[in-house]
## 1
Amino acid sequence: MAHNPLAPEWLSSPADANTLASGLWPASAHRSDAGAITIGGISAPDLAARFGTPLYVVDETDARTRAAELRAAFDTEFARIGTTVKVYYAAKAFLSTEIARWMVDAGLNIDVCSGGELAVALAAGVAPARIGFHGNNKSRTEIDEATRVGVGTIILDSPIEIVRVAEAARRHNTVQNVRLRVNSGVHAHTHEFLATSHEDQKFGVVFEDAPSLVAAIRAESSLNFLGLHCHIGSQIFGVDGFAESASRLLSLHAELLTGGPVPELNLGGGFGIAYTSVDDPSPVADLAAGLADIVAAECARRGIPLPVIAIEPGRVIIGPAGVTLYEVGTIKPVRVGDNTRLYVSVDGGMSDNARPALYGAEFSVRLADRVTDAPPALVRLAGKHCESGDIVVDADYLPGDVAPGDLVMVPATGAYCWSLASNYNYLGRPAVVAVADGEARVIVRGETIEDLLARDTGVSTSSTSGVGSTSEVSTSSTSGVSTTSTNDDVKETTR
Ligand SMILES: Cc1ncc(COP(=O)(O)O)c(C=O)c1O
């Protein structure tokens, strides 16, 4: 079929719109003999029947494997140059107690950036010493709690935090390990990076201010300075931006060594993943090798010892392991000039995937319940919210016979989708189901109307009774709201 002129230039009409492009899907994803997409041994129609839609599905084996392989790649490459590396999982990408445990099982530490994320990590049983605490505006309560439980490191983000963290550490009779987040002036996004002398943004401290701030840290007996931290951005494909930033950081690191020990250097996260068939991110092993080479060369050039390196990837570990399953509700062919675009609306949208509306992120979509040889049609996957920007997939091709009641799946939604989810239009946030070896289990249940009304102080208890109950094997339906809950399956519809 010919290219639809309404499609972006990079998107070509596929020979077969049923194909699952390589690199986009969880490792176990494939089409069954019946044509349904199957993940972790469970087919999309089974998942929809058991748990309802929309549904976040995470391939547990894939997530665990990506975490373990990333760690192994960085361990190997940094051992090659003669140092070690600490890998922190950036929990903001997707955090639940279960996911935190998968990461710890794979030998990773956990990076949190709020009291809430800290509470989840602790509830998961993560040892506080394995936790790094971030944030450009940590509250006094958060700082107090982090020092009280004894988190491994706090990443200081502004001068005032030196005093606040030092005071809290004294209060709790402890010496708190800290890093100082600096702006290296390098900002990267996908294929390009920008190197400036200053960055106009809220995170970290100005590069040139670091020496005096580190001196202030060193003057506090309740603080132990571990080293610098820098995060240059997210969804970065090549190694060049990291190389430029590491080079700048190591010059500052070398300067700081003249005033005392600087045992570590944290290079942040940001490794990119594929969201569409044309995305081609660097393999993790290449990034590890590239970063190790840069650190080795820059340290040798300056004649300084190799620091222990820390990194904080999130998306590259959990992003490709997750998909979102939706049911198609309405289909509207919209004529634009001489061409037509099919608006395919699903039962979720910007409340379960804010990334397209937030920063124009691109995604892909495939029919999940069947294959068909209908010619591909250009579609825009829209949500059900009252916003015209409520788009999940701006442009992709689906078989032209896509119909109401079809299931569709959007790959690579494991990172920054559930964690950015909202209740816009009073939609309940969908459940998260982990699949592996033919088993599926709810690791975060979906929200019911009861949940949505629970904090509204104007609602009397009697008026909510019977609506969206989650008690065992109960079903109710009131004003389009139904919930069925059993021991292991929770099917909820608040849409
Ligand atoms: C300080 C910091 N570290 C790590 C990350 C993780 O980035 P990514 O998920 O792209 O690897 C982020 C993301 O915004 C971040 O702000």
## 2
Amino acid sequence: MQHRTGTRWTHQPGITLIGDAAHLMPPVGEGANQAMLDAAELATNPADPDPAIRTYEEAMFTRIHPIAEMSARVQAMMLSPTAADDIIRFFTPQPIEPAPASGRVDEGARRSARPPGKPIAGGRRRMSG
Ligand SMILES: Cc1cc2nc3c(=O)[nH]c(=O)nc-3n(C[C@H](O)[C@H](O)[C@H](O)COP(=O)(O)OP(=O)(O)OC[C@H]3O[C@@H](n4cnc5c(N)ncnc54)[C@H](O)[C@@H]3O)c2cc1C
């Protein structure tokens, strides 16, 4: 299936789309998360729906575009002839800090130097091409 990125539409009063209907993309772990975020953003101002829909749509178009492109790149990687090697490389942590002078990598120091919540580079990183 071919997925399009950058889908937009002209605002129509009182109606909009969320979830896959708004931004169908390859299933690489983002669609349901983005659908829930759509719903949460749209529900921020239920008393005044039309401005809420406009605000949601503009924010969603901007938010989704890079995610849809990243999903397309990951799908292309998974379907390529070199998929196995590429996926191993994608999930293999890369050292962030320069190795100590001795050349020995201190795994404990490397992990504690990482800001809380920040993944080790290589795990779920953005694809560059
Ligand atoms: C194999 C696979 C793996 C995935 N893995 C992930 C993941 O790990 N993480 C992630 O975030 N996302 C993942 N996704 C994407 C995620 O499933 C979708 O993005 C998400 O379900 C979209 O939710 P939705 O409510 O927009 O649409 P849907 O879940 O498709 O819900 C639409 C509903 O509308 C119903 N419907 C359709 N037409 C009509 C009609 N005419 N009348 C009444 N009802 C109708 C359908 O039966 C369906 O129940 C994956 C998708 C696939 C296919």
